[in-house]
Design a protein that fits this description.
CATH topology: Rossmann fold
Helix content: 40-55%
Structural class: alpha/beta
Number of helices: 8
CATH superfamily: NAD(P)-binding Rossmann-like Domain
Number of strands: 7
Strand order of the largest sheet: 3-2-1-4-5-6-7
Order of helices and strands: EHEHEHEHEHEHHHE
CATH architecture: 3-Layer(aba) Sandwich
């Protein structure tokens, strides 16, 4: 029997990178998977690249859209057994170059959108369900240049992982957080990195990581599957998928 047979899994930000790899893995383990994308182009692309996965257009930073998403999924499928709050954006700038729009764009998606998706989805998750949040090592360390705002949003998600776990413990809903280190994902391309800049970032990261390399989306997806299906006695925890960057 597959690990997620008969489960309904909703993954926000699931059209590429970590979300898409997790969608494929969850589907291979028997789940009915729904993913969201923030643009029509990303949704159309994912419909081709993720056969059998339901792909929906949803603005992760829009509170009304998060409710509409949950209502749509629950109306069609009746429940959400596994919620993976993965949608997020990353922008970097020195403090003196941060303006209100830069700040708000990241907090709207990474924090406000995540909170209200959790709030709206929680009543639709059966007792014993699972919630997973994608944070980052940037939320646990101040060493990422230009990452003051981004790191703060991810620190908030780390807090949500603990506080929602406490709020939902009476229903047996497990809430856990994944904090990836440097991962080779399309988010680097979305940030405007040239191929040379991307290679330099990943090479530079590798020199700081005890395992000597950046991680991959499938490795993070495997951690998500563990928390969704296997970690039945784990809640309020944070799993660093970072090659030892934080701990060693």
């Amino acid at each position: 029997m597959a690990k997620l047979d008969g489960k309904i899994a909703l993954i926000s930000g699931g059209t590429s990178g970590i979300g898409a790899e997790t969608a494929k893995l969850f589907q291979s383990e028997g789940a009915t998977v729904i993913v969201t994308g923030s643009s029509q182009a990303s949704v159309d692309k994912a419909k081709t690249e993720l056969p059998g996965v339901e792909v929906l257009l949803s603005n992760a930073g829009d509170v009304a859209a998060t409710k509409a998403l949950v209502d749509q999924v629950s109306a069609k499928h009746g429940r959400i057994d596994v919620l993976f709050v993965n949608a997020g954006i990353a922008k970097f700038a020195p403090i003196d170059q941060v303006d209100e729009a830069f700040y708000d764009s990241q907090f709207d998606v990474n924090v406000k959108g995540a909170f209200f998706l959790l709030k709206h989805a929680a009543p639709k998750i059966p007792d014993g369900g699972a919630i997973i949040l994608t944070a980052s090592v940037a939320g646990a360390s101040g060493g990422l240049g230009g990452g003051t705002v981004y790191g703060s949003t991810k620190a908030a998600l780390r807090s949500f992982g603990r506080t929602f776990a406490s709020e939902l413990k009476s229903r047996g809903i497990r809430v856990n957080t994944i904090s990836p280190g440097p991962i080779d994902t399309p988010i680097l391309d979305k940030n405007g990195f040239t191929p040379a800049q991307k290679d330099a970032f990943l090479t530079g990261a590798a020199t700081r990581i005890p395992l000597g390399r950046a991680g991959t989306s499938p490795e993070v997806a495997a951690a998500a599957l563990y928390l969704a299906a296997d970690a039945t006695y784990t809640t309020g925890a944070e799993l660093f998928v970072d090659g030892g960057l934080i701990d060693l």
